[in-house]
Amino acid sequence: MSSRPITIMIIDDHVVIRSGLRMLIEHDQRMQVVAQAGSRTEALERAASTNPDVIILDLLLGDEDGLSFLPELCQASPNSRVLVLTGVQNPDAHRRAIRRGAMGIVLKEHAADKLLKAIMKVNEGEVWIERSMMGSMIQEFNKPALVDPEVSKIESLTDREREVIALIGEGLKNKQVGERLFISETTVTHHLSSVFSKLEVSDRLELIIYAFRHGLAKMPK
């Protein structure tokens, strides 16, 4: 296993907060801050030049909106994974951040160890959304209907596809799903493509929310 530390970039318009985050992060020897930025222009330039493993982004950057340039940030450093660290408790903003390329959301009010754990998980390719935020997102998606139009979609799923969905709901990556089901990672990818098509969801986040809402996966404890 590589001993190289996880490289991290911090984007926040407050110098004191950036300094505090750097001290917190680098206290963990598995992590190293390689760049900082306080504005959109700085963020795009430094992300492209340093190509960090994880980018920590605040959604509010003075007069600028981190959410608005998140897709540009992902393009500037395509191998980086963006983790949003925010004080904004708005399920719609969280959902839009994930859809625009963020791999996770951490609220500033939470303990420091939550951030460090989220960095590790996001670096490993997992989506980090805490239970409370996931519940809010599900409520946002949950629109009442006299007849559930999703029944026929769900009934079209194969047993294997249901197994894949349940494991995705546990937070497993494709490789881990394959190992659990004794199938190849490529086969897992094919199953997910079929699931996306049948359930008419566009990405992993929508699938997880859909699965929790319709009982295809269990909410994490």
Task: Give short descriptive properties of this protein.
221 residues; globular; alpha/beta; 11 helices
Quick overview:
With 221 residues, this protein is an alpha/beta fold. The protein has 11 helices and 7 strands. Helix 4 links the parallel strand 6 (81-86) and strand 7 (102-107).
Give the topology.
Layout: E1 6-11, H1 15-26, E2 31-37, H2 40-50, E3 54-57, E4 60-61, E5 64-65, H3 70-76, E6 81-86, H4 91-99, E7 102-107, H5 112-123, H6 131-141, H7 151-155, H8 159-169, H9 174-181, H10 185-199, H11 204-213
Low-confidence stretches: none
Q: Helical segment tally?
A: 11
Task: List the strand order in the largest sheet.
Answer: 2-1-3-6-7
SSE run: EHEHEEEHEHEHHHHHHH
Q: What do these coordinates show?
A:
The protein has 221 residues and is of the alpha/beta class. Helix content is 50%, strand content 15%. The chain has a five-stranded parallel beta sheet, sandwiched between helices. It has a two-stranded antiparallel sheet with strand order 4-5. The chain starts with 5 loop residues before the first strand and ends in an 8-residue tail after the last helix.
